[in-house]
Structure formats: structure tokens, C-alpha cells
Amino acid sequence: MESIQTTIMTLLKIPSQIKSISQVKQIHAQIAKSFPIFTSDILSIYTKFNFLPESITLFNTLPSPSIHAWKSVIKCYSSNAYFFESLKCFVKMRGIGIHPDHNVFPSVLKACTHLMYFKFGESVHASVIRFGLEFDIFTGNALLSMYSTFQRFSALQVLDESPERMTADQSDSILHHHNINNYKLCPEVGQNCQNPSFLNQFSNRGLGNLRMQSVRKVFETMPEQDVVSYNTLIMGYAQNTMYNEAMMMIREMGNAKLKPDAYTLSSVLPIVAKYMDAWKGKEIHGYGIRHGFERNRFITSGLTDMYANCKMLEDSYHLFCSLPDKDCVSWCSMIAACVQNGLFDEGFILFRQMLSANIKPTLVSCSSIIPACAHLTTLPLGQQLHGYIIRHHFDDSLFISSSLVSMYAKCGNIKLAKCVFDGMKQHDLVSWTAMIMGYASHGYAHDAIFLFKEMEMEGFMPNSVAFVAVLTACSHAGLVNEGLTFFNRMVRHYDITPEFEHYACVADLLGRAGKLEDAFGLICSMPENKTAGVWLPLLAACRVHKNVELAEKVVLEMSKFDGDNVGAYVLLSNTYSSVGKYKDAATVRQMLSKKMNKKEPACSWIRIGEKVHAFVTGDESHSSYDCIINALNILFG
DNA sequence: TTAGGGTTAG
């Protein structure tokens, strides 16, 4: 008996010597029989292994759990992502008058952060101050993380309702006299963040800046900061698109003699990707290799994404291939890299390879590959994916629904697109825009405009993409006044700087309506990006309205940056022909035939059944070539 | 004891 007791005492004093959960269970069984006084120690060992069911069962057998037992179970709940239960336990503990300590607050604050319990988190902060633990580095870091997360949603309230202004008695009474069930998601955050007016609020970068200042204040009031403190702030800046500030923090980190770790690198990579700074990205990659982070999953996925964003797909793929154990995120990063760079077939090949490697598609991988179905107009594949999505209950996701709406619209089935849109429990700006664009591309301009106005009435503030959609609708339907009104509202009311796409839509709209000089003037007023995409529709309009003089001016403008544009010469030649200037048309055609040799011919294709039929200019190799030509002759009379 | 990845609309 004595020797068993000695062994158990030794193991309990050095729990790190216990190597498996079965050993814990053996010790537990022995202690439960002989030494119930050690039950609390066994509980802490169960929680060390994050073994939740055993921890809870054991905890429930304790007649009056100690602070040690309470904090073990609170931590265990939090570590297993049972955040609500963790907070309930914390409230119960406070309710019976047990004082929390520096071990328990980080777990509780983590639970508040994940649940987005904004006001409850503030009360916990007040309690931290009441117990004099605000200078504990772990608690401080947990607070920093909590406010950094909250700031993305409603951190102005952090500034206005700082718990530092509460008295100790106030904070204590909050945690003593409330019911955790009253702390459902506070209205500004969490699931309800789809609330449009709220979205509008935090889409403003200026406010985001102000919010991060409050997080920075928490950082500065900490008596000391470690790597976690810096990383938390850097992540906060990065997630708030305050990239310069994030980079500044890395420099400050160096001044504080702290070395960037894997967390730091994975926070910086999205910034480098955003700025398409491949040189800096390579530098980070090298630093990662030198410091042993080469296999870190967060870094490898960040690098894959960064290289893809910098249009260095080969580097992305090389890195991806070098990974010995690819998880679903590795696959998804590479698939998304292909799809976002227009390599839709390659995206599909990888998707199939992922399935062969027994990696099941997740919600995210599904939403990455659906746009490939949309662009390749492969409806059967898209429908198969939709079936999979329904079977796996991914269809509640806004990402999934928006991509499905877009896919069905692009594949020609606007009714199914509307069906998915109407079936959504809630909409966001992206899903509204997908549906508006669907209507616009199908020529249902009035439906698109109606939906755009409905979206505004619902309180959503349209962004530049939503305006592209509604302007496309106006352009396709020739709704000149409506289009110009939307364009002006975008600039004056919503303060959105027009981009290439907006100019292209309006120029096209004016051109189709015969207001050729207005269209020319608008394009000339563009500050940059006067590329072929914006001139060609005007040139097409010149042909329709037989305006040779303006067509020549347009081609002259285009020759300043794209002298070999075949489309421009075809349209100019056709414009000459339309007014009977056949000699000029022939001259342009001669020039064209010389340029054609330098150009890769365009290709179009159609899917019939399971087969894709592709056609290239001048290619007569298709087996049904004669039938196709006969059919075309019938169609064109 | 505290911090992190891939996704949707042009």
C-alpha cells in the first residue's frame, strides 16, 4: 500500500511523467478507491490532456470543488471549444464566491472572444482589474486578443464604455448577479453582423483606424509585452487592412529584441500578397526556412496564397508539391490559387486529385471550386457539387450561396439562380450583387434595377462591384438616363471613385445610344486604364452609327498603347464598309492580315452533352464543319 | 494559461 501511495504521490507531483490517458485512468481508479483526497489532482491531469468527458464526470462527483478544480474545468471547456459551458462554469464559480486567479482569466477571455460576448467580455475585464490582474502578461494578452477581435465589429464601444471606468464594486456585482443566458450574442456582433447598417459602419477604414488605436492603448498599458502581444496586435492591424501599421509593429518588435515567429510570418504574408510584393514574400519564405518554419501549415498556405497573388503560380505549385502531408487547407489554397488566376481546368484537376487523396471537400473548398464551374459553364459538375453541398449542410453559408447564384446565372439558368437566392436565410452585399449581375447578364435590366433598389432599402450600402452590376444592366438594356443617374449617385452620394469597369459600362451605354461624342469624352476623362476594353465597345458603336471620323479618332487613341489590336482594325474596317468606303476597308484589312500572323487566334467553345467542341478562326478540322457552315448560311440568309 | 491558415459578387 505504501509503495502504491509513493508512486502515485510522485506522479502527481510531476504530472509530466504521465504519458498517456490510459495511465491517468489507472491512477484515477486507484485513487478513487484509496485516496479520494487526490481527486482534484486527477482532474487537473485529465484537463492537461484536454479529456473533457472524464473531467466533467469527475468534477461532478466533487461535493465542494476547490478553485483548482473550477479553473481546471473552465480551462478544459475552453480548450475543447465549449465556450458557453466554460462561461457558465465561471459564472457559477463566481456565484458561490470563489475568486478567480491569473490562471482562469485567459480561458474565460478566450471564451468571450470566440462567442463574441462583447459586454460580458467587458465585465470580465472589469473583474480582472478588480482582482489586480491586469498586469499579468497572459491575461493582458488574452485581453488584447479579445479587444482586437471585437474591434473589427464594434470596438468604438470598447472606447466609449471602457470597463476601466467601472468601480470594483460595479464589476463584481455584474458577475455576481447576472444570468449567462441573458448574454446571447450582443446585437452588434457575431451572427447579427450581417445587419447592414452595422456592416456599413465597420466598412469605413477611418473608424477601423480609430478602433485599433484603442487596442494599441491596451497594448501600451501592459507593463511588458512578449511575442504573443506583438503578434496579436500585428494580426489586428493586418485584419483591419492597416498594413503599414502592421509592418511598423514588426520593426518595433525587433527594437524590443523579440524575434518574429511562425505567427508573425503568417500574419504578414497576406499583407505581402495584397501588395503583390514577391521580393518581400521570398524574403519571408527564406526567413521561415532558416528558422525551421518550413513545414508550418499556416505559413505554407500563406506562401501558396502569396505566390499566387503575385502571379507566380509555378512557385505556389512547387511549394504545394513539396508538402509531404497535404491537409484540406493546403489543397484548397492551391485550388483557389488556380481558380483565382483563371486556370479553371487545372483547378478541377487538383480538385479531383484531392478527392483521390481521400481529402473530403469542405465548405471552403466547395466555394473555391464553384466559380470554376461558373466560368467553364459546366452546369452538370456544378449541380453535382450543389448536391454534395446540400448533403453536407453547407448551403447555409453565404459564400456557398453567392457562388451558386453566380454559377447558375453564368450557366444560363437564371431561374435556378433566383431559386437559390430566394432560399437564402439572409443576404449580404455579395449575394445581392451576384443576383443583380445574374439578371443584368441575362438582359433582365428592370429586375436588376428593382433588386438593386430593394437592396438599398434593406439598408445595404452598395460598393463598387454592386454598381458594376447595375450599370451592366443599364448598359445591356440601353437605359441611358438610369445608367447616368446610377453613375452620378455612385460618385456623389456614395463617394466611390469610378473604376475601369464603371467607365466601360457607361461608355458602352452612351455608345449604344448613339451619344458617341459623350462616350469619347467620358473615356478621355478617365485618369488611367484607358485600355482596349473601354475603347472597343465605343468603336463597335461607331460602326453601328456609321461614324467613320470618330472611329478613326478612337483607333488613333488606341494605337498609343495597343497598336496591334486586331479587334480595333476589324471594327474600323467594318465601319468603312458600312458607309461604302470599301477601298479604305480593304487597306485596313491588308494591314490586319499582316498583324494576324503575330496574334494568337481567338477560340470559342460549346459543351454538348459531355463533350466540349472548340473552334478557332480559320480552322476547318471539326468533323461536322460542313453541316455547321450550312446551318450558318441558313441562319444568316 | 494567451495569438494564426484556405472561400463568395465585376
UniProtKB/TrEMBL annotation:
<protein>
    <submittedName>
        <fullName>Uncharacterized protein</fullName>
    </submittedName>
</protein>
<dbReference type="Pfam" id="PF20431">
    <property type="entry name" value="E_motif"/>
</dbReference>
<dbReference type="Pfam" id="PF01535">
    <property type="entry name" value="PPR"/>
</dbReference>
<feature type="repeat" description="PPR">
    <location>
        <begin position="327"/>
        <end position="361"/>
    </location>
</feature>
<dbReference type="Pfam" id="PF13041">
    <property type="entry name" value="PPR_2"/>
</dbReference>
<feature type="repeat" description="PPR">
    <location>
        <begin position="428"/>
        <end position="462"/>
    </location>
</feature>
<dbReference type="InterPro" id="IPR002885">
    <property type="entry name" value="PPR_rpt"/>
</dbReference>
<feature type="repeat" description="PPR">
    <location>
        <begin position="226"/>
        <end position="260"/>
    </location>
</feature>
<dbReference type="InterPro" id="IPR046848">
    <property type="entry name" value="E_motif"/>
</dbReference>
<dbReference type="GO" id="GO:0099402">
    <property type="term" value="P:plant organ development"/>
</dbReference>
<dbReference type="GO" id="GO:0003723">
    <property type="term" value="F:RNA binding"/>
</dbReference>
<dbReference type="GO" id="GO:0009451">
    <property type="term" value="P:RNA modification"/>
</dbReference>
<feature type="repeat" description="PPR">
    <location>
        <begin position="66"/>
        <end position="100"/>
    </location>
</feature>
<dbReference type="InterPro" id="IPR011990">
    <property type="entry name" value="TPR-like_helical_dom_sf"/>
</dbReference>
<dbReference type="InterPro" id="IPR046960">
    <property type="entry name" value="PPR_At4g14850-like_plant"/>
</dbReference>
<keyword id="KW-0677">Repeat</keyword>
